[in-house]
Amino acid sequence: MEFGFHTTAEEAATALSSHIRGRTVLVTGPSLGGIGFETARSIALQNPKVVILAGRSISKLEDAEREIKKSAPNTPTRLLELDLSSLSKVRQAAEEFNNCTDIPKLDVLIANAAVMACPFKMTEDGELQFATNHLGHFLFTQLVMHKIIAAGPGSRIVNVSSTGHRFSDIRWDDINFENGKAYDPWMAYGQSKTANMLYAISLAEKLKPKGIQAFSVHPGGINTNLGRHIPRDTMIEMGYYDKDGNPVNSAAITWKSIGEGASTTIVAAFDPRIADRSGAYLADCKIAEPLNPYAKDPVGAERLWKLSEKLVGQEFDV
């Protein structure tokens, strides 16, 4: 099957069913109404060994699990409380997952959770968007890496990025926007999405000897709760909404359904045809070119790895 703009996650997962069956998959940010949920639900339909739903709110995870069970009642699921905005809580979640002796390996980790263009907030570990979208995922991934390695060649890590990477490179000397004085919500989002892409490049390089792949993806423009912090007037001004506040296709954007938005993640996680393109960025279910060259710079990728180690206070061999 050829995949493209209008392919849904369920269609992609059905086509890739033999590559999903029997595998252990973890998805961050799987709340109802978002692409993380649709990613997890579509995977659950194809008889994986277990789907781990990881997110900040246990009650929201329970809601997602309940809905998934309606479609895939026989697929085992597990819930993992994971607050990506706090490194100490990330460590707790990783320890809990690592102590799950009945889940000795992790075939696919999908780093989907994100915040977007929110008001400035400093967490205990830095600016909220960078902390949540990149740093928390970096630390969690590294702390559970031995389970990914245990899954052997062909296991994958998928970072959900965005064309929003075009808004900013990494602000190497000022990640936190002068503690908010120079804060721009879109630049902060762009910085975090560039980080998602560079991290995938580093992972691909470091895991190549083990046959493990990493990818970043742009899901497309989807009208979900992710955009809750963006004023309606701003969306109208950007050409995303009409004057009544309804999503509208324009020169600025062609909207996707949630199913269409989750499909590129499925392809990145399971399609064997891209196995030799580890480190690549995907959009519309295909290998794509980043909008800015800094988002594919291997030197920048290594620099981000070192910076991330410094910020989490721990070094990693892989």
TrEMBL record:
<comment type="similarity">
    <text>Belongs to the short-chain dehydrogenases/reductases (SDR) family.</text>
</comment>
<protein>
    <submittedName>
        <fullName>Retinol dehydrogenase 12</fullName>
    </submittedName>
</protein>
<dbReference type="InterPro" id="IPR036291">
    <property type="entry name" value="NAD(P)-bd_dom_sf"/>
</dbReference>
<keyword id="KW-0560">Oxidoreductase</keyword>
<dbReference type="Pfam" id="PF00106">
    <property type="entry name" value="adh_short"/>
</dbReference>
<dbReference type="InterPro" id="IPR002347">
    <property type="entry name" value="SDR_fam"/>
</dbReference>
<dbReference type="GO" id="GO:0016491">
    <property type="term" value="F:oxidoreductase activity"/>
</dbReference>
